Here is the input.
Amino acid sequence: MTIEQKKISLINWITNLIDERVINQIEDFRKSSLNDLPKEIVELLEISDSEDLKDCVKHTNARDILDKQ
Here is the structure.
């Protein structure tokens, strides 16, 4: 399974979670992992989180860019 497939699988699993306790544990993990990051990266993540999606640029990868040329 590729990393992309793992992420999609996790997203689907989280989306279907009903147990709030598990969701809270995931949120705690997220918060604790942010504490391990450099302050500058956390600030960038917070800025990114606050942006309106309509103003964001769609993510691409090198294959997408090369296929268009």
User: Anything to note?
Assistant: DSSP finds four helices and no strands in the chain.
